[in-house]
Q: What sequence folds into this?
């Protein structure tokens, strides 16, 4: 039931704005992701000036640098986070099932041991 709800949630969230608002519910981040808008480049000369200093070496971002996530990457990231939640639910269910099976196995082992003792007691 919870897995079906997660699948519906994943299908319902499609647009970047929806993803940004829904992402904290499935992927706990210390600071929410802002929705960045690309500023249009004024002209090609400005774009060339910005990239000229980075040719041959990559600039090292400052510790407080902002990270921009392309809109195309938001949906796969959100889907992965929802799938992760689903895996966590399945893992919790499997662990509970394992505990139940271990308890049943112990009980059956005790019953078997008691039956063996009873049979051996009849022989004496």
A:
């Amino acid at each position: 039931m919870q897995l079906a709800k997660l699948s519906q949630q994943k299908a319902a969230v499609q647009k970047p704005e929806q993803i940004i608002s829904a992402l904290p519910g499935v992927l706990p981040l210390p600071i929410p992701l802002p929705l960045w808008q690309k500023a249009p480049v004024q002209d090609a000369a400005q774009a060339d000036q910005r990239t000229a200093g980075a040719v041959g070496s990559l600039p090292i971002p400052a510790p407080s640098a902002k990270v921009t996530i392309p809109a195309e990457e938001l949906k796969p990231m959100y889907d992965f986070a929802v799938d992760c939640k689903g895996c966590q639910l399945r893992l919790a269910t499997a662990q509970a099932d394992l505990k139940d099976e271990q308890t049943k196995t112990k009980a059956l082992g005790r019953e078997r041991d008691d039956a063996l003792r009873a049979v051996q007691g009849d022989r004496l």
About this structure: The helical segments are 2-12, 16-26, 44-52, 71-123.
